[in-house]
């Protein structure tokens, strides 16, 4: 195949890139490995992690259209109560982690709908159930990418003027010989106060395999998982003697051990949920933390139970990483992570302490249909950390940390292509480190972070941008990934239309200004509003 823009990976960044490029008239080939498009929002089943001001500003217009579309599905198709239907900022799951907790399948439908007109017109061609296996280059240019089927189909080779790596782990970087980094950089390189003295390329954040459960009558206990005895007794150092499979885990911000509660279907008022983690972490009752369906927002009797999305410290897998190891080794480690998640479920069903003094919740039932999988676990692994390009601009802790920046705010970039905000939130990692969870400041996304130092026609479109291990912790969330992808798609189409190359656009003020005007015209915010009070 030959196309203008190849986007590898149809997660949030990849879809945003494809929409932006096709919206400017480019022909796009978009690829996806898993059954669902949407990445962390859908196949990974992670409700959107967003900043407190998301209902008013701080996201792109297309990302806002996605959020509005999700709410619209619930208002049109679900038997909401009158009060829920009238809730302007409807939170279908009434979870405390996000103002828009919802079932992943709903987001799949909205994303498919957003792509539909471009697919119908032939501007976007979606290649499904394929993954990149090799690439060719000519000097500093990527000339083609070969995609192998994961379901036994033929290989496809795609040549494109511009290629966007929107995979979850930067899969194109080693295939194209693009320089990149993994794990912790050394403080001597980045100057970051939280970095180690020596680089630790194998020290990568935990990955997770999420799942959804309901609580209904009957005994729905699964078969005892393989390796359950290991996981049942495993006590990570950061847990200081407590077991991973428990209601106890380190508080990410204080590192003190906190014991959470777990009460299914507690009868709370979902309309009173105020999902703002700047005020309340919201994880006191784990059932409510990432709840993705609240039965009391629906007409009485429609649902037997809420839906609880399990993405807690107890399923964080940090025994080993999966970057730059043989594929069979990576697959074995992912299989082990899946066993950990099933072990947590089995522990909850059979041994978990209850508030009434009993043990076990046999009424917990997996919902494979909600996950779109055979085993009830998410289709895809939630990767918190990717390979990251050696970029023209690398964002470091010194650019965004509130402890460093104070009231000056984050570094401002002349080449800003968007904004984002989240705490620097690092989960335990494969090197034995515990949480790093510290305040950041509302930040900008520099165009230079999307550009490899050397490769000229490959753009980063996901968590593979020029951040460090530390700043990845605040640049890795849903709206930032979408903004990164959207900016990359616009840039590819802009360069096709003007004949300029990405590095030239970033370097020359007059060309940069033209490109940024196009971004703002399509609803991409380049700066945070002045005069707002930003809590940390």
From TrEMBL:
A matching Pfam family: FAD_oxidored
Organism from which the protein derives: Myceligenerans pegani
PANTHER family: L-ASPARTATE OXIDASE (PTHR42716), SLL0471 PROTEIN (PTHR42716:SF1)
Stored Gene3D superfamilies: FAD/NAD(P)-binding domain
Name of the protein: FAD-dependent oxidoreductase
